[in-house]
Write a structure and sequence with these properties.
Length: about 450
């Protein structure tokens, strides 16, 4: 944040507060990296479900259940957070929930499919809700023209957090395998490492991040849930003012479906299609996290000048290249190239998408609009991995075919993205802010 970092921040925002905000990305990235991407997913398929033909589908179905819960709750949680200025309190609750249930995954052993499903659904639900809440702080911390840059700081630091979590797990796995321990012994310990690091690294967030929102007037006779639904209905009633936000959310559903399929099934693909061992897979994801951190930071520096739409389009083209390389790969060399292309595109596409939602969000409804963004992302988390799981089940384990079909989501995302107008979308948000400040 050196140099022009101060000019990127909103008035009254200290650098240490932005660091505290970004540290949440650092803290929670270990969950996605270790549990969803690199270790527990492959362990669930190969050990917990004993490599059954339905194992990959069962994994994707469990994740789909947790994302379905997010679809129902995210907009309402966001609306409640806005009305009661409760983003930080709710973030603390979701952090505790994710840490507890991630630690609970250490109890899942061979054959305990039902227990694994329960803990993965719960931990992922709390993780995803917290992800939406921390994103809603972004427009309060950064100036409008620097949303992409500040968002990139968070994503790049997040991948370093994933790198640290995975590095610690790799060190332990290497030691455990040297002692002759099977996966059923060393994988549970990696879940405890991940949970502990999440709890420890999130401390700066709750120490330095401020809740700037002010509780809004609300009818006392309405219950919290009814009130949240009432605010959500108001947002949907004004949907015509936000046509570019709506179009981008649809675009997000498609391209994120492809991204989430790749992220969720990366270790499984490496294991089942490429024959990687647990240690090889961890090492691969470790290197990809370095690439992703670099991609998030570098694109974060240029996306505000290059343009959010061009940045996202460029990364989606990169994702298509990655899909083709992974499908063509028959040996580790080409697959390593494909994985690192995915890393570069991952950080950039996630950061640019979050910044664009910030531009399209009017003040006073930011948590609510980021809840809608979370709704779109979580819906994509259902259809992308589930499509992959269904294809592998129907084709009796053809992971290459499933990967190739995933590329269709990126093509659809590119086509829809072409109709999004950033200036028009920003004007709609500013118009809504002006109307709220001057109702007469």
């Amino acid at each position: 944040m050196a140099g022009n970092g101060r000019s990127a921040l909103a008035p009254g925002v200290a650098k240490r507060e932005v660091w505290g905000w970004a540290m949440y990305d650092f803290a929670n990235s270990g969950y996605t990296t270790v549990v969803i991407t690199a270790i527990f997913n492959a362990y669930f398929v190969s050990t917990v479900a004993a490599g059954a033909e339905w194992a990959t589908f069962a994994w994707t179905a469990a994740l789909s259940c947790s994302y379905a819960l997010i679809l129902l709750s995210a907009p309402v949680v966001g609306a409640y957070a806005d009305a009661h200025a409760a983003k930080k309190r709710l973030l603390a609750a979701t952090t505790l929930g994710c840490v507890v249930f991630t630690a609970g995954l250490a109890l899942v052993g061979p054959g305990e499919v039902a227990l694994g499903v329960v803990f993965i659904v719960a931990s992922n639900f709390f993780f995803s809700t917290g992800e939406n809440l921390i994103a809603a702080f972004l427009p309060e911390l950064a100036r409008g023209r620097s949303l992409g840059k500040v968002s990139g700081w968070g994503w790049s630091l997040g991948y370093l957090g994933g790198l640290l979590s995975l590095g610690l797990c790799l060190a332990y796995v290497t030691w455990a395998q040297g002692k002759g321990q099977p996966a059923a012994q060393f994988v549970p310990v990696t879940m405890l490492i991940t949970a502990g690091l999440f709890a420890l690294a999130s401390i700066p967030t709750f120490t330095f991040l401020r809740e700037r929102a002010v509780p809004q007037a609300h009818p006392p006779r309405l219950g919290a849930l009814r009130e949240a639904f009432s605010r959500l209905r108001q947002t949907l009633a004004h949907a015509r003012q936000y046509q570019d936000l709506r179009r981008f959310l649809v675009c997000t559903v498609f391209y994120q479906a492809g991204i989430q399929a790749v992220v969720t099934l990366a270790a499984i693909y490496a294991q089942e299609a490429m024959g990687f061992t647990t240690r090889q897979t961890i090492l691969l994801i470790l290197v990809v996290n370095v690439t992703a951190a670099a991609g998030a930071f570098l694109f974060g520096q240029v996306q505000d000048s290059l343009g959010h739409i061009r940045t996202i389009a460029l990364t989606l083209a990169g994702w298509l290249v990655m899909i083709l390389l992974a499908w063509m790969a028959r040996g580790p060399g080409l697959f390593w190239v494909a994985a690192n292309v995915a890393g570069l595109c991952l950080g950039a596409s996630q950061s640019a998408g979050r910044a664009l939602v910030g531009l399209f969000s009017p003040a006073g409804r930011r948590a609510e609009f980021f809840g809608l963004w979370g709704w779109a992302v979580k819906f994509s988390n259902i259809i992308g991995p589930l499509t992959y799981g269904i294809v592998t089940w129907a084709s009796r384990g053809d992971h290459r075919l499933a990967m190739l079909i995933t590329g269709g989501y990126f093509l659809a995302g590119l086509a829809i993205l072409a109709g999004v107008d950033v200036r028009r979308g920003r004007r709609a948000a500013l118009k809504r802010e002006a109307a709220a400040e001057n109702p007469l």
